[in-house]
Every structure is written in C-alpha cells, then in structure tokens.
Amino acid sequence: MTDPTTQSRLPTPGRYLAVVARYGIVWVTLALFVLLAVTTDGFLTGPNLRNVLDQQATLLIAASVATLTMIAGGFDVSISAVAVVAPLVALRVENATGSVAPALLVGCLFGLGVGTANGWIVAFARINSFITTLATSFVVFGIGYVASERSILRPDGDGFQRVARTRLAELTTATWISLAVVAVAWILLAGTRFGRHVYATGGNAEAARLAGVRTRLVVVTVFALSGLASGLAGVVAASRTISATPSDDFSFVFGVIAAIVVGGTSIAGGTGAVWRTLLGAFFIAFMINGFNLHQIDPIWQRIIQGLVILLAVATDAWSRARRT
C-alpha cells in the first residue's frame, strides 16, 4: 500500500497543468522561436537576432519599469508622450550647450518630473490613473510642440548618436542600456522590500495600508520610475534615429502594454513579473520578425497582433475568475 504522505507528493495531472499555465509565456515563446528557426531562412542568424534585440531596446526600457506600475494597480498612458517629448527637451539642451551629458540628464529628469506629477495626482487626488495619464499626455505633447517650435530637432555633434549606436561585443549600446534597465527593474521588484510593497499595493491597497505599507508613496514611486524610464527610452530612440519629432503619437505605449499583458502581468494589479514582460516583448518581436521575413501583409500582421493581445487579456481574466 502506498504511504498517504508519499502519495500526496506524487505529481498529478492538475499540478502539471498548473505549471504549464503558470509558465505558458515561456513555452509559447520557446515554441515560436523553434518554429521560426526551423521554417524561416535568415531567422536564426547573428545579424537578425542582434537586430531584433536592438529594435526592442527602447520598448524593453519602458516596459520593464512600467510592469511595476501595472502590478501596483496603475495604468500609465503617458509613456508615449514622455518618450516623444523628452528627446526634444534633451536636444534643445544639446543644441544650446554642445554637450551630451547635460542633454541626457535633462531628458531623463523631464520624464521623472512627469511621472512624479502623475503619481501625486493618482495617489493624493485619487483620480483614476488612466484618466490622469491620458490628460497629462496631452499637456506633455503640447510642451513638445512648444519646445521644438513644431520642427524636427537634430543633434549638433556626433556624441549624441553614439549614446545608442556604439557597438560593444557586437551589440549596440541601446541594447546594453535596455538589458541594464531590465536587470535593475527585475531585482527591484523580485528582490527588495519595495517590490513586495508593490505587489501588496496592487493586490489590495487597503489591506496593505493597514499592514503598514505606505501605499501612496509606492504609487508615486512607480509612476516616477515609469516616467524616468520613458524619458530614457525616448532619448535612446532619438540617439538611434539622430532626430526627434514632435507628434501626438500614442503607438509606443500600445507596444509597451502589449508586451506586459502578453507576458502575463495582470491588468488588475497584484500579479506579474519583469521576466514575464521580457518574454512577452520577445514573443511579439519574434512574431513580427517572422511576419517580415515571410513578407506577410502588414494589415494581417495588425489583425493577428490584436488577436494575440485579446487572447492574453482573456486568459488573465479567466485565470483570475478561477481563483475567486
């Protein structure tokens, strides 16, 4: 007869399914990678994979930190606005001073300032984070038109473009910067007391407050960090394109949110991880890269990407419904 204790430790189909569901983004990303490597000429090559890394650099910078905001229960739409305007402000400084370091600092500080303002409004005025950041987006976009005088800005010297375009060990500095930001965000969320407070705030803010968590400070901090990362992402993007253009383009934030939700971070807050966002970003990147290599019509690419995001959100809602 089997010992009951031993029997309870034996794996069951339910446990296997739970593991598969919990790490689903890992399996599907690996499966997509293998499928493309086997079926697509040119995919599994050094230049192509390095190109994928470089193209995802700015998205990873913003998305890895925005993951903390979403886990804390926030929703930051202003990421696009900050990423557009921060390099405009930075290039104004670079054009005026001829120095790259102050330009980078001012661009990042601009993002930090916008993010901090968002956090204070959400935490203390108690206005919904989506509405708050949507409203501040229009303010920031307006600042961009004023700062640029409605014209494309370009750096005066070569130093600005070297921020993102220099190669180290065959990878661009944009890639190295993104990997460094991902590592910092990952450690901050998974390995610090602050990270535990982020989860607690997003899971149940009132219970967290009663337990001694300074939930308002957590909210302000995650929005401030999101703004800082968005500013850095915008400056890196401008360094790569050697220009910055004023616009009302919200597309960047859609890519960021897609990477986060496809990775499995809950839009309701309280659950998620930076590594999930990393895999979500690469899943989408591999999918788009495969589409391009197979010359799939861009219209169909958009349709499929939209369906993938819907599936990810539906899966999140279904898993939360099962837990309640």
What does this structure look like?
Helix 4 runs antiparallel to helix 14, helix 5 runs parallel beside helix 7 and helix 5 packs across helix 12. With 324 residues, the chain is mostly helical. The N terminus is likely disordered. The protein starts with a helix and ends with a helix. The chain has a two-stranded antiparallel sheet. 77% of the residues lie in helices and 1% in strands.
Short description:
With 324 residues, the chain is mainly alpha-helical. The chain has helices at 4-9, 13-22, 24-39, 46-71, 79-97, 100-125, 129-148, 159-165, 173-190, 193-203, 205-210, 215-241, 251-263, 274-293, 298-323; strands at residues 167-168, 171-172. Strand 1 (167-168) and strand 2 (171-172) form a beta hairpin.
Radius of gyration: 21 Å
Strand content range: under 5%
Largest sheet: 2 strands, antiparallel
What spatial order of strands do you see in the largest sheet?
Answer: 1-2
Amount of helix: over 70%
- Span of the ends, CA to CA: 36 Å
Low-confidence stretches: 1-8
Task: Please identify the structural class as seen in this structure.
Answer: mainly alpha
DSSP helix count? 15
What order do the SSEs take from the amino end to the carboxyl end, as H and E?
Answer: HHHHHHHHEEHHHHHHH
Write the layout of secondary structure elements.
Layout: H1 4-9, H2 13-22, H3 24-39, H4 46-71, H5 79-97, H6 100-125, H7 129-148, H8 159-165, E1 167-168, E2 171-172, H9 173-190, H10 193-203, H11 205-210, H12 215-241, H13 251-263, H14 274-293, H15 298-323
Antiparallel strand pairs: 1-2
Helix pairs in contact: 3-14, 4-9, 4-10, 4-12, 4-13, 4-14, 5-6, 5-7, 5-12, 6-7, 6-12, 8-9, 8-12, 9-10, 10-12, 13-14, 13-15
